[in-house]
Amino acid sequence: EEDLLNDVCREVVEKWSEAQIVDAKEKKEDEIQAIASMMEKQARIVVKPKEVSQEEKQRKAALLAQYANVTDEEEYPFPDPAETRASSALNTLPALFRNTNVEDVVNARKLERELLRDEFQKKKEQDKLQREKDKLAKQERKEKEKKRTQKGERKR
Predict the structure, then answer these.
(1) What pTM does this model have?
(2) Three-state SS for 1?
(3) What is the pLDDT of residue 17?
(4) CA 6, 9, 12 angle in degrees (round to 5)?
(5) Cα–Cα 20 to 30 A to 79, which of 31, 109, 119, 149?
(6) Whole-Å CA distances, 78 to 6, 26, 81, 82
(7) Burial class (CB in 10 A: 0-12, 13-18, 19+), 89
(8) Residue 85 in 3-state DSSP?
(9) Contact, 101 vs 95, CB < 8 A?
């Protein structure tokens, strides 16, 4: 019985190994088939060229010309970045649009500085008034103390 059992086990293992090899080959063939079908689908897809109107072509040409002018005017080696920022903020090239980011930031900072300056002035004035009030209150306390001591002296 043991010999028969070993033979049966060996046969089961062999059949299982053969089935695994066949499955692996089928999987590879399936993958190859899937890749081939994807490639065929991609080959069938035709990309239509985008239709661009004459107006859009003119806009694009104007934009490219504008940037071409900017690059033609630049120097090599490039100037100091601080100078570049200052000059670019002041330069106004005729363009289809105007970049106002730098101006907006500069204006926002100016406004912020003015507000801080105003707040500082107000605080300064309030501090001055408070010092005057404190000085008057101190003086009044001294006078009251003086009057109290004078009354005490008179009673004696």
Answers:
(1) 0.32
(2) coil
(3) 87
(4) 150
(5) 109
(6) 86, 64, 8, 11
(7) middle
(8) helix
(9) no
- Lookup result for tokens 């090239």: 93
> 7-66: per-residue pLDDT in tens?
888 899 998 888 888 777 777 888 888 889 988 888 777 667 778 888 888 998 988 888
Which pLDDT tens digit goes with each residue over 128-151? 999 999 999 999 999 999 988 888
> Cα(112)–Cα(99) distance, rounded to whole angstroms?
22
Please answer whether residues 103 and 88 qualify as being in contact, where contact means their C-beta atoms are separated by less than 8 angstroms. Answer: no
Sign of CA dihedral 74, 75, 76, 82: negative
CA atoms within 13 Å, Cβ hemisphere of 28: 6
Q: Residue 113 has what DSSP assignment?
A: H
**C-alpha–C-alpha distance, residues 67 and 73, integer Å:** 10
> Which DSSP category does 91 fall into?
-
- Quote the CA–CA distance of 26 and 4 in Å, as a whole number: 33
pLDDT score, position 47: 65
Question: In the predicted model, what is the mean pLDDT of the chain?
Answer: 81
| Selected residue with higher pLDDT from 95 and 54 | 54
| 8 Å CB contact between 102 and 89 | yes
Q: What residue type is 117 in one-letter code?
A: R
